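User: For a benchmark we're assembling, each entry needs the component sequences followed by a predicted structure for the full assembly. Here are entry 17's components. Please fill in the structure.
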Amino acid sequence: MSASLAPECSERKERYDTCFINWYSEKYLRGSTAPSPECEALFKEYKTCLNAALKEKGIYDMIKEARKTSPNGGSGGAA
Amino acid sequence: MVKFFENTFSYDYQWPAVTLAYFLRYPNPYSTHVVSTDTLSTRIDPETGTLHITRLHLKRGKLPASVARFIPKIKESYILEKSIVDARNQTLKTENRNLDWDGVLSVVENQVYAPSGPDTTDVKTVVRFESKFGRRAEVTEKRGWLGGWGAGSVQRSIELVGRSRMRDGLQRSREGMKIVLEQLRERGFVGV
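Assistant: Structure for entry 17:
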């Protein structure tokens, strides 16, 4: 697993990543494409930690802004 | 200025394994410049069943001297990755772009992964390489940042370096993907 930008979030990230990869490979890729709450609680814990770190580094707003726009008009992955 | 770089490559693996490798591609021996990867959001579109994932990568690396001359002090770069997995139609669309050089040099990489045979997956890569130097120069020249450099020649020099680095980078990312795919095969993940 890759490291987190914020070392203090690494454990939470690893727990979430493990959950996500299991869900993705065992369920989503096998046809369970309905929204699933399986990893939500773990993601919430991780995200709280990560957002605090992004704010501390002063890049939270830059990322938030960048996420709104897709330079190629969304063809390649605008959510 | 917008330029395109296009390339198609085929992996000898089934599409599910290639998509899994995509999300697990860091770390690998070819990605030592990638410091971290964090997930910003994931959601499933309830109607289409598509999975939307946004991640943030931090990459570190020295700039080539010819570019560092114009853009000093950039030692790391944040990359925003947006992916859409469509399991029903077996396509993975990805977009990666650098965030913090945005005002000077913007590189947007789009990829589409789709099956090309029973055991092969094609990936088509399109890179939009964009230098906004002309526009930037108007702003910064007032502060004397550019000095006597002609914006046009600076732009050309940055684009030239950017394109050759992009080719090398694409080759390395493929080698990294292959290693991750091999690991998945060893662990018994053979697909769906």
